[in-house]
Amino acid sequence: MLEFGEQYGLWPNSALIYWRWNVQKAFSASLLPLCFLCVLGLFGCSSNGQSLNTNLPGEQPGAQPATQPTEHANGIVQDWSMHHLIYPQIGEINSLIALQDDPRAILSWQEAVRQRFNRARAPRHFFGQQIHRDWSISLGTGGMAPAMFPAKFTFDTSAAPTCTAVSPAVPDFIVYTVNAVGSSSQPNIVAFDNLYSGTAGSTGICNRTPVFGVDDGISATTIWSYNIKAAGGQVATSPAPSLDGTKVAFVETGAGTTAHFHVLAWKSGDGVAANLQTVTSPKSITSGFDASAPTAGSGNVTDLPLGSTSDTLSSPFIDYADDSAYIGNDTGQLFRINFVFCTTSACTGAGSPQPTLDNTWGSSGALTTGCPGKLTGPVVDRHSGNVFVGCSDGKLYGFSTSTGTAITGSPLTVGNGGADGGIVDPPMIDTVRGFAYVVSGASGVSGPQVLVQASTSNLSSNSTATLAAGGSFNVHAPAFNDAYFSSGTSSQWLLFDVTGDSVANHLTEYGITFNGSHVMTSGPPANSHQFPAAAFEVSPITTFLTTGGEDRLFESALSAFIDNTISLNISGGAFPTVPESFTTEGSGTTGIVVDNASVSAQADSLYFGVLASNTAVKLTQSAFQ
Q1: How many domains does the chain have?
Q2: pTM, whole model, 2 decimals?
Q3: Is residue 88 in some structural domain?
Q4: What mean pLDDT comes out for the span 410-415?
């Protein structure tokens, strides 16, 4: 391990940077691991800047940070996109430097530093206990669509939990979209605060004195509820908050209707009923959409039609650095939108217009991808300068964001395009190491369910892991263990996924391995374990490192059988075969977002929608109560 001394420099955004490099020639002469990218101060930065913290000048190498990461105007966003863009802390230096202006990269590295700080100060926790449900709130007659994610916003970048509005008036909150046609009694997008509440007898830090018929005192409370309808009135995909939490972007759609892109500048109290655990008195907005960028806290919303067809699968991807968005639709068009949250001088200098289609992208803002059906959520890799999107035809498409032209090897055939051979989840991009990952229920070659790793610069350079031999289920996104992000020991790197095999009638968990150059091992994975619970579709995998230092994996079978949602301990590169925690959640869960950055009570929390019961739920591991 070679330690470079205290080095200072200025980045293009005028931030004063303190570098602490840990250099280890573990993989090749060209690979240099960077343990943490550290931002000590942001002098004259744009509003998208975030800060990181490791050892301060004068501290001994390896010493624990003297102070927590500092707070800035922006908070912490945890939405669907954070599961599909990953930023390891070890990689080629040039790759890491190239991401210095990517807000998601800074958020990810900031989270790593914050976790390191908190783990050093938190008492050692151990799992193996049942998951504890803190609260469950009905979303009405509809709920989130399968495989979609709610979006969590944390106000304080030090991750100190906030219950209700502070100054500025943005509390910690969670946003749920609702896959049901909105009405005067049915919202299609809602949000809750007082998140860190808990059921009777728990130590929820947001618990309040109950008020009969108004507030039960031990659940989250509705902060706003809307029925926003320009066409179809349902929201089938995931929401995307702004970095400061004051606005939320989402797509409204409906069968046989045109998809509409909205930006909501939510107003606290809009659509809130007398009973704060009720969402079914939404504020309806069906006309009078804002013709300019909506002002934070106004309760106004913009409206932008997207082509002439619906969007039931593609969540909006926000490129925060450029204030742009990419969205697909159900007939293979990929849209690019400018001025999403109006955070750049290009927008404010033009009179703060509402979001508009980028006429330099494709034809009047719509790029014809070649996909004949539904597109997944697109994912932009700012390092390669490419955008990637899956299609129901079983192919992965990649395009240059600067020219809109297909990259080498695009499209890449992954599935067979049949009923369960399409790509239904967005690709996952390791933007530091230059790999895209994508899964499909049935291969276009021999029929098994597959997971493919491809170069982000050339999709024809790829490796394929063959999963279950047969299947009649969609396969959802995988997830890495923590060692892949933080360890230089390649034998500990694992990529997890779970598939349902309708031929053998069981679920199979896989742990895919890598060589020292991060190339995925092809063929059947060496690590696999069958769960004889029958075969079902399984939600996207979620992994996270707890404040107690344990690496956890969560998955949910999309069926109403008992204990359909489980947790596994994957610490230290382990491939477990016995679940440690169980809970029964309706007919399974949507995608799961986590909140585990603080040593406070309820720090290790999970948020998701429950299928069939149409509820918004928060869980906490009982060990942390």
Answers
A1: 1
A2: 0.88
A3: yes
A4: 96
